[in-house]
Each structure stands twice: as structure tokens, then as C-alpha cells.
Amino acid sequence: MTLKLYFAPGACSFVPHVLLEASGAAFEPVMVKLHKGEQQSPEYRAINPRAQVPVLVDGAEVITQILAIIGYLNDRFPQLGFLPAEPLARARAMETLAWMNNTVHPAFTHIFMPQKFSDNPAVHEDLRRYNAGLYRGMMGELQALVQRANAAGQDWLGGANFGPMDAYALTLTRWGSIAGIDPADFPDLWAFVQRVAGHPAAARVIERERLQLNLFKPA
């Protein structure tokens, strides 16, 4: 077995975790317990000095950063078409994935871990509140992506094939529920996310990571 994925339950590493399950290839999933600081251990920093997940190891090669890993898995398993093959459709998929990763994801980090952005505890609640408002708008954008796919008769966000945008949409919607946003407020998105969760590869990862899809708690 040459493939190994370092993941943290519920983190963005869910995306390549699902792609590996969908590939049917043998791989070793290695859990990194972020809440226990395992990512800061000398052993893990020897693998990824940035102390982040995901990390994909393929033989002697170590690949970090989720977009790089997605691109690598798409090329390693081309028969599955995780990303569209047509150039413009591929560009649109990468455009969406980059937005998910560089805009929506950091907004959640400001809510979940405001201490990463200020050492002043007095501003942490302001960071949470402000970014929760931004995040709600971004969930509206996610729903619009689903609605456009539905209108085009597409099974998945990238077209006919299940892929990384679908898994990332599930992750970001789940995070929204942690941020106090009821996914039921976005019915088309929520229905889509539940369908993603029912995909066999996603279902296996949800079980392995012991994830609850909706963590929203009414005030």
C-alpha cells in the first residue's frame, strides 16, 4: 500500500478522504487529533512543517494543500473524472474549489478559532459574530450553485461525476451548522448535502470519522 491520507475528523480533509474512498484504491487513513495538538508533534511536523491536514503520501512523495491533493487524485484516477475534462468546465470547477478554500473556509476559521486572528480575547466575539453573518451569505452562494446544477440537469456540482465540490459543499454546510446557521434555512442546499452524504464513498467516510451532519442548536 503506497497511499496514506492524514486526516482530522470533520476537517476539510474530508474531501480527499471521500475521493480516495470513491477511487476504490487501497489507502491507509491516519487520524490526526487536532484537539489534542497531534499536528504540532515533532513526528507530524516532520511530515508537514505547517502542521495542517490534509496530507497525502504516495510512496516517497508528500503532498499538502487540499487543492493540490484534489488535482493529484484527479490525475491519478482519471477514469473517475473527479474534475471535468473540458478546459472551461475544469476552470469553473477550480474557480469554485478555490473560493470554497480561500474564502468560505477562512470565514469559518474566524468563527471557530478567532484566537488565530487576534490575541485580544475582547475582540473574539466580534470576530465570531461578524464572520457568522458573512458565512450565512456564503451558504446562500452554495445554495445557488446547487440550484444552477439542478436547473442544468446535473447530478453533481461538477456535472455527471461525483467529485470534490460535492464533498466540500457537505463540509462547509456542516460547518455552518456549527456556526449556528440552520441548514434547513437553505432547503435546496440541505437536500443536496443529504444526497451527498448518501453516496457510498461519503457514507463510509462519515462513519469512519463519526460525523453528525447537522450540529445546529436552536437558541
From the structure above, extract its key features:
single chain, 8% strand, alpha+beta, Glutathione S-transferase Yfyf (Class Pi), Chain A, domain 2, four-stranded mixed sheet, Glutaredoxin, 219 residues, 4 strands, 8 helices, 2 domains
Oligomerization category of the chains in this entry: single chain
Named CATH topology of the largest domain: Glutathione S-transferase Yfyf (Class Pi), Chain A, domain 2
What is the spatial order of strands in the main beta sheet? 2-1-3-4
Number of E strands: 4
Largest sheet: 4 strands, mixed
Helix content: 40-55%
The number of distinct helices, counting runs of at least 4 residues, comes to 8
Based on the structure given, which CATH architecture of the largest domain is correct?
Up-down Bundle
Quick description:
This protein is α+β, with helices and mostly antiparallel strands. Helices cover 54% and strands 8% of the residues.
